[in-house]
């Protein structure tokens, strides 16, 4: 149910205007995000899946005057429950959108690192943790397929019949440690049926996997890369990410991903495949 606060139509800040986005704005938002370098992928993916008027998601647009003095989209904020994702053009002041996000009791806000540095300033003492990541992309011409797999290992795209095996692989692992088994299973069902997951099998068991966490018409975010501890050292993480990226590139979707700056093993895997770092990504956690 919308509140009076949700019914606000616009906010004037200097020469910028901010307003709640609606269904007629979808083509303009997609066009705006098509050249975002991947930083607005979660926003684009959710908009394509659920639209701009979903009850669970709220989208705000920041407009600035163009050369003709007509308002041009300069930033987008997506609110999903107590989580926020924000993208603004380089050099655009994100403060109006950050202020809107802080009307919520945020669990976290994420986005390009310089924009998130400003969000940290707004949150102040409410910040409880900051995750600093490298942000990377894989252009087609840089892609390096991996070496042949070890004997007895098969890599393929996951199907709904694999959801239980995938849930067992990820249960109680990094990123899933706060989720009960049914929640992990639900997450993997969504990854398999609405996005895409590639897995590696060894001795009849699923031992590694990687998924997309967001997809648009022209790009995708790769994540959830994991190999069971007993199967490491065989190049399986590299193999599943390579298979996933090959599938995306065949569809002319550029792969993007982010990884913690101190995660040297991940850096080696992604560099081997041809990923190049293009910037930084931050997730800022706060007291909700």
What kind of assembly state do the chains in view correspond to?
Answer: single chain
Q: Rg to the nearest angstrom?
A: 20 Å
Give the name of the CATH architecture of the largest domain.
3-Layer(aba) Sandwich
Largest sheet: 13 strands, mixed
State the end-to-end CA separation.
21 Å
Separate helix tally? 8
Mean pLDDT: 92
Order of strands across the biggest sheet?
A: 1-2-3-4-5-6-13-7-12-11-10-9-8
Which residue ranges are poorly predicted, with pLDDT under 50 across at least 5 consecutive positions? 1-14
β-strand number:
13
Topology (elements, then pairings):
Elements: E1 10-13, E2 16-20, H1 26-33, H2 41-50, E3 57-65, E4 71-80, E5 83-88, H3 95-101, E6 108-112, H4 113-123, E7 127-137, E8 153-157, H5 163-170, H6 181-193, E9 197-202, E10 205-215, E11 219-227, H7 236-250, E12 254-260, H8 264-273, E13 276-286
Parallel strand pairs: 5-6, 11-12
Antiparallel strand pairs: 1-2, 2-3, 3-4, 4-5, 6-13, 7-12, 7-13, 8-9, 9-10, 10-11
Helix pairs in contact: 1-2, 5-6, 7-8
